[in-house]
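<instruction>
Derive structure tokens from the sequence
<data>
Labelled lines for chain and fold
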Amino acid sequence: MQPVDLTFPSLDGRMLAGTVHAPAGSPLGALVICSALGVPRPYYRRFATWMAARGVGVLTFDYRGVGGSLAGPLRDDPATLLDWGRLDVTAAIDKARETWSGLPLWALGHSFGGQSFGITPRGPDLAGAIVVAAGSGDLALYPPALRRLYQFQLGVALPIVTALTGYVPGRFGIGADLPAGVVGQWARWCRTPGYARGALGLDATHYHQIDAPMHFYDFPDDTFAPPAPSAELRSWYTGARVTHRTITPRELGLDKIGHFGFFRPGPTEAIWAELRAAVVGDHTVGHHTVGEDAAAS
């Protein structure tokens, strides 16, 4: 079936743009994709279409202030990163559960999307989660050269740009144009020990309440989510049944994967099949690790 665009309300009534990728027949599983920061939903279209062709219903959506969910001039948009996690991700999970009410719902989080599962109160209700290229944003965990680069970008360059434009243009390396409040809060969290958990407080997050299976995928050439921040994020999900896989470009016959290459079709489809198997409950396709043993956080 052709993807169907729709709108649905976030928890505060703000309208969000989404796309339903429905299988031709009865769905075997259901999945909602929570995007990376600065990545509109069309980026995941080929992945979602691939899943739908193999029996998985998929909902993609744009956070407020991004892509189809932009309402009015971006410089006037009051959106924050917390709004994305608490309001928009929650509403998308609710919409997916409504769309495929008879099926257990899984979620896939790319980068910020993987962080958001512990911010939304619906995280503990998921049947399972897949986390791709995600880590804590705590800059103290980053290698020194990357830490200095991101400290300059977040603490100096982006505030100057925001003061001049009223928003953060995507050409500065963050993907789509973003509301100033989203990037400003992200920068504050990155400079806070413990990132979102440190900024919000443990009692205001839900990482430890998730007890579903969670499959983590990361990549050694990913400069946005290097090994230490990725390991830190996994450690927050203390109640989940965690497996972790590090995938090298060489393993897939690629020159690079990085932060975004997982969702490009081709050799990555072998890993996509693992994700599909998890969502539909096909235990004949096992999740295993490369370079690190599966371990509970």
Q: What stands out?
A: The longest helix spans residues 144-165.
